[in-house]
Amino acid sequence: NQIDHERWDVKTLSDGFRIGLSVRTTVDSQCRMNRPSEGWTETLARQPDEKILYSLWCTIDSAVLEKDGDYHIIVTGGDSTMIVEIPNPDDCPSTSATYRDMFKTARSIVDRYFGGVRSHHVGSKYSKHSPIDVEIEGMGFWDNKHGRPAKGHAGNYREIHPVLKIEILTK
């Protein structure tokens, strides 16, 4: 099923990349980044700012289970929204067991919070809950432009994908 996914190796860390640099960021900062000058293709290699582990405090607005098995989560911060995604660990056989375990843990936190995430196939409805503040850690990712940005997408199509860690922040 991975063949149907755009830039799947980059999205799932199965491209052999090893995480090094970690940077704290904001949703607003991610949404202001400039897209790579190289044209986007399904085989575009990992870009320099996709080699950074980003940590951001944000608010989860809603989530949906995408057709590709990823959790597609809308987060807000400042005046901006963006998408963060958690791959289905069972659909990533060439990703290291460590990363797959991180995907499972992050998805379980989302499941507990939302009481399960609705499938995109069932009415394309996002699971909503009272907004919750979280810290998310994951890799920066440039998604394909899909025409006019869809619900929650940053105007520059910047995402955090994959999410490796979610921590609910208590007030």
Structure commentary:
Helix content is 16%, strand content 34%. It has three helices and six strands, in the order αβαβββαββ. The model has no long low-confidence stretch (mean pLDDT 87). A hairpin with a 5-residue loop joins β2 and β3. The radius of gyration is 15 Å and the shape is globular. A five-stranded mixed beta barrel has the order 2-3-4-6-5. With 171 residues, it is an alpha/beta fold. The termini are far apart. It has helices at residues 8-11, 27-32, 97-114, and strands at 22-25, 53-65, 71-77, 80-86, 127-142, 158-168.
Given the C-alpha coordinates, what overall shape results? globular
Query: What does the oligomeric state look like here?
Result: single chain
Average pLDDT level: 87
Instruction: Summarize the helix and strand pattern as letters.
Output: HEHEEEHEE
- Unreliable segments (pLDDT under 50, ≥5 consecutive)? none
Strand order of the largest sheet: 2-3-4-6-5
Q: What about the largest sheet?
A: 5 strands, mixed, barrel
Structural class: alpha/beta
Keywords:
16% helix; 171 residues; alpha/beta; 3 helices; five-stranded mixed beta barrel
SSE topology:
Blueprint: H1 8-11, E1 22-25, H2 27-32, E2 53-65, E3 71-77, E4 80-86, H3 97-114, E5 127-142, E6 158-168
Parallel strand pairs: 1-2, 4-6
Antiparallel strand pairs: 2-3, 2-5, 3-4, 5-6
